[in-house]
Amino acid sequence: MKQINVVGAILIEDGTILCAQRGAEKSLPNLWEFPGGKIEQGETPQEALVRELEEELLIEVDVKPDQFEHTSYEYDFGIVHLTTFICILKNGTPKLTEHIEVRWLKPEELNSVEWAPADIPAVEKLISEGITV
């Protein structure tokens, strides 16, 4: 089975977390995720996250060095290994280029949307522990 290494941003601003909805034409259609993407060869996970957020949302972020959560989930298209990191918005306002919607949600509001399965452990951790920056 194909192994896919991806990173996701737990982007925090004013006590809320940026959540992004996947498009209907993508895999995992209309599910919500922490924005991010695949790690390219030669990149650290943090470098991949900075690059992906610049490409997908046209923003600049600071990525905290330590991972927040790591999950592996077997989808029909492969096994996704998702590592999430706490990020702080440095510059810009998120723009929709690949997602169909973004929402800033408080940790206790995260269950109001339907998450991609690989993201759920990080969601549950945020709900139980809150945000620590």
From TrEMBL:
<dbReference type="InterPro" id="IPR015797">
    <property type="entry name" value="NUDIX_hydrolase-like_dom_sf"/>
</dbReference>
<dbReference type="Pfam" id="PF00293">
    <property type="entry name" value="NUDIX"/>
</dbReference>
<dbReference type="GO" id="GO:0008413">
    <property type="term" value="F:8-oxo-7,8-dihydroguanosine triphosphate pyrophosphatase activity"/>
</dbReference>
<comment type="similarity">
    <text>Belongs to the Nudix hydrolase family.</text>
</comment>
<keyword id="KW-0479">Metal-binding</keyword>
<dbReference type="InterPro" id="IPR047127">
    <property type="entry name" value="MutT-like"/>
</dbReference>
<keyword id="KW-0515">Mutator protein</keyword>
<feature type="domain" description="Nudix hydrolase">
    <location>
        <begin position="1"/>
        <end position="128"/>
    </location>
</feature>
<keyword id="KW-0378">Hydrolase</keyword>
<dbReference type="InterPro" id="IPR020476">
    <property type="entry name" value="Nudix_hydrolase"/>
</dbReference>
<dbReference type="GO" id="GO:0006281">
    <property type="term" value="P:DNA repair"/>
</dbReference>
<keyword id="KW-0234">DNA repair</keyword>
<dbReference type="GO" id="GO:0046872">
    <property type="term" value="F:metal ion binding"/>
</dbReference>
<dbReference type="GO" id="GO:0044715">
    <property type="term" value="F:8-oxo-dGDP phosphatase activity"/>
</dbReference>
<dbReference type="InterPro" id="IPR000086">
    <property type="entry name" value="NUDIX_hydrolase_dom"/>
</dbReference>
<keyword id="KW-0460">Magnesium</keyword>
<dbReference type="GO" id="GO:0006260">
    <property type="term" value="P:DNA replication"/>
</dbReference>
<keyword id="KW-0227">DNA damage</keyword>
<keyword id="KW-0235">DNA replication</keyword>
<dbReference type="GO" id="GO:0044716">
    <property type="term" value="F:8-oxo-GDP phosphatase activity"/>
</dbReference>
<dbReference type="GO" id="GO:0035539">
    <property type="term" value="F:8-oxo-7,8-dihydrodeoxyguanosine triphosphate pyrophosphatase activity"/>
</dbReference>
<protein>
    <recommendedName>
        <fullName>8-oxo-dGTP diphosphatase</fullName>
        <ecNumber>3.6.1.55</ecNumber>
    </recommendedName>
</protein>
